Every structure is written in C-alpha cells, then in structure tokens.
Amino acid sequence: MKIFLLLTGLLCFQQLAFSQNKVLEIVTIEIKEGTNKDFEDAITKAKAVISKAKGFISYEAKHCIEQENKYVFLIYWESVEAHMKGFRESDLYKEYRSFLAPFFKTPPVVQHFN
C-alpha cells in the first residue's frame, strides 16, 4: 500500500510540474463570411501538420457562438521557444499556414499564457 501511495504521489507531482511548464498559445481568428465549412475542413488538415512539430502538446479549435466568423485555437506547447523558434521558423509552419491563411479576414491575434 505504501508503495502504491508513493507512486501515485510521484505521478501527481510529475503531472503538476509538467502542467506548470507548458505554455498555452491562444489564437483569435476572424474569417471571411460564408467560409466556415471550408475553414473547418482546413483546420483538420492544419492540425495534422502542427501535431508533427517538436514541442507541440495539443490543439483545440473553438467556434464562437455570438460571432459566426470567429474562432479561437488553444494550442499547448512545451515552451514559447518551441512555438516561436521551432515551429514558426520551420517548413511545417508554412504548410500549416497555407491551409488557414486564405480564410483570414484580418490577421490572427496570437498570445501566450502560462
């Protein structure tokens, strides 16, 4: 029993340490009116690309209820550097952006949170 509790505590500590080190990138995107279906198809393709990036953890896209042409992406990275240097300066980023950029009404707003 003591070993089980020790292992459980160690796993919880590792999860806590991991969650404190990761970075959340929030991307706010406004797309051209009437392109939602095609944009959502492009999100699926873009997600397959970004998931190959070193330092990538997870990706979730959310559609705004109040504004039909607004989305947010919640992307977790191991660090800001993994996103800004590793991914943004790679060929993967060019491919990722090629799927999404044609739909942008305005440039996306990108912010990082810890």
UniProtKB/TrEMBL annotation:
Residues 23-113 form the ABM domain. Keywords: Monooxygenase, Oxidoreductase. GO terms for molecular function: monooxygenase activity. It comes from the Bacteria. InterPro entries: ABM_dom (IPR007138), Dimeric_a/b-barrel (IPR011008). The keyword Oxidoreductase applies. Pfam families: ABM (PF03992). The keyword Oxidoreductase applies. This is Antibiotic biosynthesis monooxygenase. It comes from Emticicia agri. The lineage of its organism: Bacteria, Pseudomonadati, Bacteroidota, Cytophagia, Cytophagales.
